[in-house]
């Protein structure tokens, strides 16, 4: 290989590496944003679940509170 061919290949590799670094950074930022969104959604779900429990308590009695059926 000639010196010119090696320089061309090196330039192409450096260009690819720079592009890959940019893509990796972009993807990393996106994953970080999605992680924050997921955490916010889980917290909102938890709060909604708590509010729902507070507003409408369950109509199902525990086994200890249930009266036995008449055939017992």
Automatic annotation (TrEMBL):
Protein name: Protein SlyX homolog
Annotated organism of origin: Marinobacter flavimaris
Keywords: Coiled coil
Pfam name, any one: SlyX
Coiled coil among keywords: yes
Record region (Disordered): 53-72
Family, per entry: Belongs to the SlyX family.
Entry keyword Cytoplasm: no
Sections of the chain in a coiled coil: 3-30
């Amino acid at each position: 290989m000639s010196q010119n061919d090696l320089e061309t290949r090196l330039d192409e590799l450096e260009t690819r590496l720079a592009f890959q670094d940019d893509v990796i950074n972009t993807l990393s930022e996106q994953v970080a944003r999605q992680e924050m969104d997921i955490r916010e959604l889980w917290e909102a779900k938890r709060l909604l679940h708590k509010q729902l429990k507070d507003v409408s308590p369950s109509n199902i009695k525990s086994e200890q509170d249930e009266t036995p059926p008449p055939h017992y």
